[in-house]
Amino acid sequence: MKIKSAEFEISAPDLASCPRWAEPEFAFIGRSNVGKSSLINLLTERRNLAMVSDLPGKTKLINFFLINAAWRLVDLPGYGYAKVGMKRRLEFNDAVADFLSGRRNLRTIFVLIDSRLPPQAIDLEFLRWLEGIKAPYALVFTKMDKQSASQGQANIAVFMKAVAGWRTEAPPYLTSSSTTKVGRREILEFINGVLAKPVLA
Is-contact 10 19, C-beta < 8 A? Predict the structure, then answer.
């Protein structure tokens, strides 16, 4: 797949505020500071399309990016950290939950996992929640350049073993690095494959 155009469209605080359109969407979510914005910039080859910050919890809105005038990437607030009061933090969680469970044109949720870390309880809990709402998702192990290839694959194997505790079939997974550009082609091919499939009524 070739990205010919990519542009930021709009931000929304919750599902009710999201525009109603029919084009397919692909959402990106993960623990704060896992590299969501960097991955979106990598996929689109636009350095500043999605704002990258060293501060965790910077993304607080649902951000839409129109790709090739045909489908959209959605940058969601990270879970696990938000530098706001408890009430606002709960609102963020509710907004994301409503979007993921109620957005009818959402085709795949890419859940980003830091490949350097052992399985984190918050990541596993989030995946179990996605299983509960029967949402289509794929894992993307980020920051693969921050360790040796063998260590990265070993960490992925440990994580997949943890996921196998409640799944009979392993979810699809990909790897990425915004520094070395590893995974860009594979993720875009995955999206292209999803777009090629008919939508079940």
Answer: yes
Q: Are 113 and 139 in contact (CB under 8 A)?
A: yes
The DSSP bridge pattern shows strands 62-67 and 71-75 to be: antiparallel
pTM, full prediction: 0.90
Domain-wise residue ranges, the chain: 6-193
Q: Can you tell me whether residue 46 is helix, strand or coil?
A: coil
- Please state, in angstroms and rounded to a whole number, the distance separating the CA atoms of residues 19 and 32: 25
The architecture in CATH of the region 6-193 reads: 3-Layer(aba) Sandwich (3.40)
**Whole-number Cα distances in Å, 107 to 46, 84, 138, 157, 197:** 23, 30, 11, 26, 10
Query: Which pLDDT tens digits describe the chain residue by residue (201 residues)?
Result: 899 999 999 999 999 999 999 999 999 999 878 888 899 999 999 988 887 544 444 457 899 999 999 999 999 988 865 445 555 545 557 888 999 999 999 999 999 999 999 999 889 989 999 999 999 999 999 999 999 999 999 999 999 999 998 888 999 999 999 899 999 999 999 999 999 998 765
